[in-house]
Amino acid sequence: MPKTITIRLKDDTYRLFAEAAAADNRTISNLIETAALNQVREQQFVDDAEMAEILSDNNLLARIRQGSKEAANRKGQFVE
Questions:
Q1: Same domain, yes or no, for 15 and 28?
Q2: Residue 77 predicted with pLDDT over 80
Q3: pLDDT over threshold 80, residue 9
Q4: Concatenated DSSP letters for 10-64?
Q5: Average of pLDDT values for 29-44?
Q6: Which pLDDT does position 13 carry in this prediction?
Q7: Which of 16, 32, 52, 55 is most buried, by CB atoms within 10 Å?
Q8: Could you give the CA distance from residue 30 to residue 7 in angstroms, rounded to a whole number?
Q9: More confident call, 78 vs 40
């Protein structure tokens, strides 16, 4: 079920959002929701270029595999 939130914006920020939303023929709330979701997704997930870099680093992959094995065997120290 959709939730309603309230945010406080400076006048110039509101105008910037209103202009951008109007240019895309959508509501300000949709513009803000889409931008926020994009930002969260960018922070949570690796993009294709970064994943390619990770997969090309054999030393890193070996360390990840070792850490995964240790975690499965409940070895090492878990930090919260």
A1: yes
A2: no
A3: yes
A4: -HHHHHHHHHHHHHTTS-HHHHHHHHHHHHHHHHHS--HHHHHHHHT-HHHHHHH
A5: 91
A6: 96
A7: 32
A8: 14
A9: 40
Judgement on whether residues 50 and 37 belong to the same structural domain of the protein? no
43-50 contacts: CB < 8 A, separation 24 or more?
none
Amino acid in position 45: F
Let me know if residue 23 belongs to a domain.
Answer: yes
pLDDT category at 43 given cuts 50, 70, 90 is confident
Same domain for 51 and 29, yes or no, is no
Any domain includes 1: no
Residue 66 is assigned to a structural domain of this protein: yes
Per the structure, the complete domain to which residue 63 belongs is given by 46-75
What are the structure tokens assigned to 44, written together?
């949570």
